[in-house]
TrEMBL record:
Keywords: Membrane, Transmembrane, Transmembrane helix. This is Membrane protein 6-pyruvoyl-tetrahydropterin synthase-related domain-containing protein. It comes from the Bacteria. The chain crosses the membrane at residues 123-144, 151-167, 173-190, 197-214, 220-237, 244-264, 315-338, 345-363, 383-404, 411-432, 452-470, 477-494, 749-768. It comes from Candidatus Curtissbacteria bacterium RIFCSPLOWO2_01_FULL_41_18. Pfam families: YfhO (PF09586). InterPro entries: Uncharacterised_YfhO. PANTHER family: INTEGRAL MEMBRANE PROTEIN (PTHR38454:SF1), INTEGRAL MEMBRANE PROTEIN-RELATED (PTHR38454).
């Protein structure tokens, strides 16, 4: 009987995945590290939550902070813009302003964003985090059954994949797993298209590839596309069918064309970003490639401890290196290696290639030595995603072999190998205890040996299952034991690392945020400590700041902040993606419209007045702050970039009367002027200027391609002053001036995406017509 596409088995693997989340959801908790926000950062830390006193809120996993410091704030801005009928093009709240849509991780076109239009913001985010591992199981099941594997083997591996080390480490990001989940679906479509040319599978393929690009994490998307192309070639050389091959190539082209609306703005932003000097890699770094000793985490994920237990003693950081897939799945993967067949070849090759590029060796260093664009700034250890995917697929083949294998030797050898590895690891760890790193308040030997106990016990349990298999115990009982042990192993691992929080704990209001929100925009704040409004957290409350946290930030802004902080013009080093200017003593502070300094310390300077205090967090008002837009008396021409930077960080700089530019100079004397802000939006600023004479108007917003200026609805020339800020010459009299963000890269991408959609419809219609006529 023909199996229904939406059979119970199709859903069963996903129901197992949901089983992990349901107990927490039942008590009103969702997977987001809001505990790190309340427990580590101010002003939230100054408040009491859920019965915990200020400064006492527990943080489950201090390693997981990026979802609340980066991803959630960006996604909130994207959705708010869409709901207001605006395109989410510009983010004014971090780095004194930078692109939003062009920021890959903002993921404006990720399909799961539709959840925000159905549910409330915080609930939608929670579902967005839960759905990707659930869909991963669904797609994995489809792919493995398309390989003609039995359903029980497919369900097993489909359940395992979302709970492997890579997936669990990135559960709460809302970007990485949403990229990774499309890989099995793409491979499923390739299999089906080579079997039968159907418009349905082409729709799925084009959608899956484009969504991989839209997912919000291009490094993972790159690995998905790389593995997909590799598999495509593998199937092509196996079947040698020309028509499916041609149609798949066309589908890939159409998917990339549809993604142009994201690709073009992001490529432009990347070309102007600090990635060229913020490469991250250096030969001295031990945390760049996968350290070979971390392969022990295939057996014991917490051999080096766990950040969630506050006892991690290995090379930082844990999430980048953990390749755990579970003891039983590892056994089945090893069994598949022993029982090598034609269908396992691809996964063995993929696992080998993943290890080759993850570990430190001459081949894996090549992209960084050659400084290849994009690849050279990406941490290579993350390719363990493909390793755990390949091993999980092999585990499905291994389980099938286990249930059919008659040779006792082939069944026992892999399990004995695992047990011997664990014993050897324990022995050499104890033997070399004096050579392990000395970590304050931690005992690495005790941590490592203790965390080998459970893998050892599970290996013994596995050996017992093998014994039951040899004495011909009913297969249903064996399968039940295998699933029970695997669920226990993987759920325990995932539960230990994954933070959950009450929905009410996601960015709650505080007295500090209320005070700042009560002040009319526009203005900016400066934090003197990264523990206050860290990352992009202030943007959740629509509060602009000069700092920010992002893998992509403008090179010019980085250079400005470096000069500002050091007091001299110098090339920036790596900022570790976080830029936090803290020197408020220079006139550039006034120019940047920094109205409030948020600090732990008292400020004795007379121009700063304390206006608010909550717990340890204090707010001082800058009495010398300049408005966001004003008219100056003169623009002095700078010789070059270094000269211009040196002038604006000079303590004698008077930003109220003078600006600097490499492009033009202008002087006006005895002028009376006034600038009023009529309407201030994220990507549109409407002003009214009154000036006795023609004069330079300065707007202390970052200059970026796509910003245009209009005077009385007529386009004018946008000028750049004070290194990276905006200016325009306004005529004498009263005029309406509007600054608009209209990036050509976005509109070019929009036109190409529209063309891609039209061509896809034509392509699918021709496929359907051909099929119908056949």
């Amino acid at each position: 009987m023909k199996k229904s596409f939406f059979s119970f088995n199709f859903l069963f693997a996903s129901l197992l995945t949901l089983l992990f989340f349901l107990p927490k959801i039942a008590v009103g908790k969702v997977p987001i590290p809001a505990d790190s926000l309340l427990g580590l950062y101010h002003p939230w830390r100054d408040n009491a939550y859920d019965g915990f006193n200020p400064y006492k809120f527990p943080t489950k996993n201090p390693l997981i902070t990026d979802p609340v410091l980066q991803i959630y704030p960006w996604r909130k801005l994207v959705v708010e813009n869409f709901k207001e009928g605006n395109l989410p093009l510009w983010n004014p709240y971090s780095f004194s302003g930078q692109p939003l849509l062009a920021n890959v991780q903002s993921a404006p076109f990720q399909v799961l964003n539709l959840l925000f239009f159905i549910f409330g913001e915080k609930l939608a985010w929670s579902i967005l985090v839960i759905l990707p591992p659930t869909l991963t199981s669904l797609f994995m099941y489809l792919f493995l059954t398309s390989l003609k594997l039995k359903e029980i083997s497919s369900i097993f591996a489909a359940f395992v994949l979302p709970f492997t080390g890579f997936f669990v480490s990135w559960f709460t990001w809302g970007t990485v797993i949403t990229a990774a989940m499309w890989l099995p679906l793409i491979l499923f479509c390739i299999n089906k298209i080579f079997e039968k040319i159907s418009p349905f599978y082409f729709i799925l393929l084009i959608f899956a590839i484009s969504q991989t690009i839209f997912s919000g994490h291009w490094q993972t998307a790159f690995y998905v596309i790389f593995a997909s192309l590799l598999y495509f070639l593998f199937v092509f050389f196996k079947k040698r069918l020309k028509l499916p091959t041609l149609l798949i190539v066309i589908s890939i082209f159409l998917a990339v064309l549809i993604a142009s609306i994201q690709l073009l703005p992001s490529l432009e932003f990347t070309s102007l970003s600090a990635r060229q000097f913020d490469q991250g890699y250096s030969p001295a770094r031990t945390d760049w490639f996968l350290p070979s000793q971390n392969l022990t985490q295939l057996l014991a994920p917490d051999f080096f401890g766990n950040p969630a237990s506050y006892n991690y003693w290995g090379i930082w950081n844990y999430a980048e290196f953990v390749s755990f897939i579970g003891i039983l799945p590892l056994f089945f993967a090893l069994l598949a290696l022993i029982k090598r067949g034609a269908n396992t070849t691809f996964f063995i090759v993929l696992a080998a290639l993943s290890l080759l590029f993850a570990l430190n060796n001459p081949i894996s260093k090549l992209p960084y030595v050659l400084n290849l664009p994009f690849i050279s700034s990406a941490q290579p250890s993350r390719i363990i995603f493909l390793l755990v995917f390949a091993l999980t697929c092999l585990s499905a083949f291994g389980l099938e072999a286990f249930l059919a294998e008659k040779s006792k030797k082939k069944l026992v050898l892999p399990s004995l190998f695992i047990i011997l590895l664990i014993c050897a690891l324990a022995f050499f760890t104890y033997l070399g205890r004096d050579f392990l790193p000395k970590v304050q308040d931690l005992n690495p030997v005790r941590i490592a040996l203790r965390n080998l106990i459970l893998p050892f016990l599970l290996s013994l349990a596995l050996l017992s299952i093998i014994f039951l298999r040899i004495i011909k115990t009913p297969k249903k009982l064996l399968i039940a034991l295998i699933f029970i042990l695997t669920i226990f192993d993987l759920f325990r691992f995932a539960n230990k690392s994954t933070p959950f929080a009450k929905i009410s704990d996601i960015f709650p209001q505080t007295s500090t945020t209320n005070f700042l929100q009560s002040t009319s925009r526009p203005f900016r704040i400066m934090s003197t400590d990264r523990r206050i409004f860290n990352g992009n957290t202030s943007s959740v409350y629509n509060i602009e700041q000069v700092s920010g946290y992002d893998p992509l930030y403008l090179k010019s802004y980085a250079q400005l902040v470096t000069a500002w902080q050091s007091g001299k013009v110098t090339s920036p080093g790596s900022f570790n993606r976080i830029i936090t200017p803290e020197d408020f003593s220079l006139p550039i502070t006034d120019f940047l419209n920094i109205k409030y300094i948020v600090t732990f310390d008292e400020i004795s300077k007379p121009e700063f007045t304390k206006v608010f205090e909550e717990g340890q967090t204090k707010i001082f008002e800058n009495d010398n702050v300049l408005p966001r837009a004003f008219i100056v008396d003169r623009v002095v021409k700078a010789q070059d970039e270094s000269d211009e930077l040196a002038k604006i960080i000079d303590p004698g700089f008077d930003p109220q009367t003078t600006a600097f530019s490499q492009d033009f100079e202008y002087t006006v004397q005895n002028n009376k002027s006034e600038v009023q802000i009529k309407n201030y939006q994220d990507q549109s600023i409407q002003l009214e200027t009154t000036s006795e004479k023609a004069a330079p108007l300065v707007l202390s917003n970052v200059y970026y391609p796509g910003w245009n200026v209009f005077i009385d609805s007529q386009k004018a020339q946008l000028l750049k002053v004070n290194y990276i800020f905006q200016s325009v010459l306004v005529p004498a009299g009263t005029h309406k001036v509007e600054f608009k963000f209209q990036p050509q890269s976005f509109y070019n991408g929009l036109y190409l995406s529209a063309a891609g959609i039209v061509l896809t419809i034509i392509f699918l219609f021709l496929l359907w017509k051909t099929k119908f006529q056949s």
